[in-house]
Amino acid sequence: MLRIITLLACFHITVATFGQWSNDPENPLMICNDPFLQSKPVVLGDGETGYYVFWIDNRSGIAQVFGQHLDTNGTPMWEGNGRQLTALTQSATNMQAALLDDHSVMVAWIGYNDSVEANVLGADGYFSFPENILVAGPEDYIWGSNGNSLTMQSYGTGCYISYVLTGYGYDDLYLSKVEMDGSLTWGYNGILVWDCGLGSAGNLHLLPDGAGGGYISWEYYGAHLQHFNADGTLNLASPTLITSCTDGIGGTYAGHPYYDIHLDADGALMSAWTSASRDVYAAKSDAAGTLAWPDSCRVIISDPAIQEGIAFSGSGNDHYISWQDYNPDATGIYMQKFDENGNTLWDEPLYVDDAPLYIPVIKSVITSGGDVVVCYVAGGAFYAQKVRPDGSTEWPEPIQVLSSTYAPFYTEFTLIPTADDNVIGAARTFFYEEIVAFNLNYISGDTLTEDTTTTTVYSFEQLQLEMYPNPARDQITLSLNDALPYTIQIVNLQGQPVMFMEMNGVQSTDISQLSPGVYMIQAFDISGNSQSTYLVKQ
Prior knowledge:
This protein is mainly β.
């Protein structure tokens, strides 16, 4: 499917309206089209059936944090063009948000040579604290943040926030623990994770370890890993260089990711990257950073042509890598699936699209049904394809999500899965720097009533996943009408796995350690098929 790049006129007439989800790539759901710069959109579920979209907005001359609350139909519930949440005296340059157990939202932001700050958005749609939480920033030996590196991970009653602070000739990686009541468990500036020397850490990742602590990973001439406890103890004497088994990681042109990491169904760390030699690799490591496979890492694709830029997602013990491939015979975007042992599961990589590769950006997310959705910029417009676990595609050709007028600005788009095997996203538009949102079910037409008279012959379709009691406080019983073994994972509303188990038939499970809230329970068979149900933990 060839693309033609369209030359746009020098002026812009906005025809998008503020309303419900749109099925028109030329007229998406407009979140904010104020004439001044909007950037860094973040979308997340509100813990019920709606969604939040946050972004940085420069309409006042000082970049502030703005937000919008959408109901399940995509109807904005706050002021047109969004609600201003901060009143900063120095511009914010980066921002993240995470949902807490009580369905409030912790929002954190960072500014160049300024402090890292946070606040908690309450049920009324306003920040809970009259003064922002000062997480980190200037001291005698520290100038402030470098304005770029920021990530956060909810642990239920608060968040871990990681960032880079700048000093005299160095950047250092720090980690803070911020409770929902605004207290800093590890104090101002938190704990020092890594002395960057004369360099700096980028592409930060935080993952839960299932015991209240977590993992932090970052890029600096390769991908590094550190494991921390809930009390701030660092478990590794020095960070592990995960990518030491290859010649490092490729470049990060325009901020494109060349490395990513997530947890598998057993809680192990799965990494994927494009090497400096432009091949695609994967590795598995334990909590100590020890590479688990006998050959340390596996080649997913090695070819004389250039492979670069990746999207990496996992469902149970199945993992999906997408990348940009300059194969002269079939240039475009490819995908391969591999298991927890590093074995590729498709005979050949799936050819997703013949997308032109001028500054392509790709991201992917696993849906509640176990499919993987990959989204990317191509030929100026923005496209998506849903891939089933067997390597077949949901749509005959990739669907256009946003036209060239509203395509994302480089990496500035976010994706989240929903409960109905769907994906919601938000983007900063490339040409006009507006914030738009999209719902793939509306774009693809999957919201239409489907003919269900066809009888399937696959036994997995007859699987019945049942759970009781629901709501539950301390224990649940799961029931499967099949004697085969299944992998079960419990996932929080941020899409993060919090519990794993293997079962067949009927099994009781202790959930007392889970924080109150809503969780998704997924059952996976050996082929990666899945079914899910929801749990309300009291």
